[in-house]
């Protein structure tokens, strides 16, 4: 009888260890997924930056819409990150597992770094948009001036 009790205790401990290992693996997968998504977003932003710099000579009005689209994407990513944090905290609360302070601290630091980088990207696109507005105004002035000169030439 004591052997069965001891065996059940050992089995219970093994099951608990396995459960904890699965929770850790799950958190690692979520963190990996988030980091891959962030890496993808950063690379996509870099590509867009290069495209924008290549087309600086010919600013397009559509750039404004691209900037808004990127800002919307950034907001969506922030929402996804927030939702995932809530899900992770719910999973941890349900399992009564304590947070690993080092992992949480590392994720918070990584999140802050990404937020800073996203703010820099937002600022860059804001500057690009302002540059496009200035160029557009200058182009409109030049066009008006040229139209006036054409009219003057037609009259003479």
Chart the SSEs and their pairings.
Elements: H1 2-54, H2 62-95, H3 101-155
Task: Please give a structural write-up.
The structure is a single chain. The protein has 156 residues and is an all-alpha fold. It has one domain (2-155). Helices cover 91% and strands 0% of the residues. The protein contains three helices and no strands. The chain has helices at 2-54, 62-95, 101-155. The longest helix has 55 residues, at 101-155. It starts with a helix and ends with a helix. The model has no long low-confidence stretch (mean pLDDT 82).
Short description:
The chain is mainly α and 156 residues long.
- Structural class category: mainly alpha
Low-confidence stretches: none
Oligomer: single chain
Name the helicity range.
Answer: over 70%
Give the count of helical stretches: 3
Alpha carbon gap, first and last residue: 118 Å
Strand fraction band? Answer: under 5%
C-alpha-based Rg, rounded: 28 Å
Give a quick set of tags describing it.
156 residues; 3 helices; single chain; mainly alpha
